[in-house]
Amino acid sequence: MSLSSHLNQLKKKHEHLSFEVEQAERSPATDRMHIKSLKKEKLRLKDEIERLNHA
Question: 2-22 pLDDT, tens per residue?
């Protein structure tokens, strides 16, 4: 897998997590720990994208 396709895949995952977080925050029944977990994964992906962009 090339670097650019890997970056695109990570960006798509990050974008999907953004959508999931938004949906979860709108739902009063969503567990706060689940939202926190989604946000941590989103941040991890963002850090990985940044690291690869500057490599």
Answer: 989 999 999 999 999 999 999
Query: Do residues 35 and 24 make contact, with C-beta atoms less than 8 angstroms apart?
Result: yes
- 31-to-22, 28, 37, 38, 41 alpha-carbon distances in Å: 13, 8, 10, 11, 16
Burial of 45 (0-12, 13-18, 19+ CB in 10 A): buried
Given this model, what pLDDT does residue 55 score?
Answer: 75
Burial class from Cβ neighbours inside 10 Å (0-12, 13-18, 19+) for residue 50 reads exposed
Residue pair 49/14 in contact (Cβ under 8 Å)? The answer is: yes
pTM for the model: 0.87
